[in-house]
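fold-stage: in
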Amino acid sequence: MLIATMIGMLSYGIYLDVLSAQLAPQKVFSEVAGGCRILTVDHSERKNGPNKIFDRYTYDFSEVANGDKFQSITEEIRRDRANLDVPTPGSFTVGQNVTCWQPAGVEGVPSLERFYTCGNPECVRVLSPYDQHAYLQTVGFYLTIFGAVAGVIGITATAVLVYFYRACKQEQMQSKIYVEPENKKGYGVFV
């Protein structure tokens, strides 16, 4: 079981590590000239148990230079436990001019979507690709580390089990002593 966990964690962790190196945001995204303007802010909340409430924000925005309109990915912010009734504000407000990013053309959008979440077909973003990259890079690192640890524990546990199994079998074989029959006509027995 631990070895299967190791294989899963290691393979996905290494996959994320490789993608984070290949698709670093400074390589595959560039800032949109003139930035973007937030047009609308859509707010909802998600409850995950009695003390976990998340505010979810989706932003409609346009490029300032040419007016193209886009929708962002959903930003999710956990509320403070002391103020569960008070929504946590989103990163942006209506009318705000913000920095936004577009694919640099090095990788196509389908390639970017293996690692980054795009809120629109062109993958123009107002939420920083650097934040998502850092998060996924950290996840990949820890999956790799925990996968290796699970593997070492699993292999060690398997080796210990095999050792004790063989030791018990050998002890059972040695405890069976052959006794010669008294009259030489009968059969000997193992005691």
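fold-stage: in (second)
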Amino acid sequence: MKEAGKGARLPNKLSALLRVAVEDSKKLARRKGFELDMSTWVHMEASGQCAVCMAGTVMVSRFGVTVTSDEGDVIEPWDLSTVRERQMLAIDSMRVGQFAAAHYSLRLPPLKDGQRSALRSCEQLVTCREIAFYERADWRTYTKCAGLLEEVGL
């Protein structure tokens, strides 16, 4: 595993972190040699494609993480620093609609009432799409959630 960009910093705010993940996912999905696959973090497949989930796209795009060309080479959040691990786990939690878990992963201050309500709204928006554990909602849904979170300071 190679981890470049050790100085790269991500926002420690749910809304901004979600926006980064959506932006990086869209970009990497169009890049040759990569495919979105929510069942893995960063994984080299037999086809030579590098499979990445939403958090994996951030690992590749922002941290310069790369896998070898060996089939089966995998990089996971716990291969990174503790702060980055928590951020990747928060992104993955938001992907499946677990926004309270994402908040907890980042070790943010206790929630205020309006913030709790925004988290619940985001959880309903993402989970009402009936996504399976290894799937995701559409990008517009995540962007809407980022806006709701931003409105309440998350």
